[in-house]
Amino acid sequence: MPIRNEFVDYVVELMSGWAAVSARKMFGGYGLYREGLMFALIVEDGLFFKTDANNVAQFERAGSHPFVYQSQTRTVQMSYWSAPAACLDTPTEMCEWCQSAYGSALRAHTAKAGKSVKGKRK
Question: Are 42 and 30 a contacting pair, CB within 8 Å?
Fold first, then answer.
């Protein structure tokens, strides 16, 4: 399925030095995946990386902000934070932020898999 968004194309190309990344349309934006695991999203030409307790301070120090949207009943803050501007300029900088976000996605996936294994034992 071809990507039809210039910003998405640009970001995926910039990430190509780090890993093979695919983009899938979702909820008016795009999810970015490495080996089937979502580690970033693009909404309205804004790039957001997956965060957790291990790396959110890194994003805060870089002046990033969380992705927030308004549902029908409340404001929702997701565990994705805006990409620092510098990472959109150089592949080296992009690689560092991608690796941090991918680590967060891996930790979340591992924790989720561990919970489902525990649930099956009951």
Answer: yes
pLDDT digits (tens, 9 = 90+) for 72-109: 999 999 999 999 999 999 999 999 999 999 999 999 99
* Full set of structural domains in the chain with CATH: 6-117 (3.30.1460.30)
What is the number of residues in the chain? Answer: 122
**CA separation for the pair 35, 24 (Å, rounded):** 13
Q: What separation, in Å, do the N-terminal and C-terminal C-alpha atoms of the chain show?
A: 41
**Bridge partners, 37 (sequence order):** 34
Round to whole Å and give the CA distance between 81 and 16.
21
Tokens of residue 97, six digits? 């932020």
Closest by alpha carbon to 14, among 97, 75, 81, 82? 97
The burial of 39, by beta-carbon neighbours within 10 Å (0-12 exposed, 13-18 middle, 19 or more buried), is given as: buried
pTM exceeding the 0.85 threshold for the entire prediction: yes
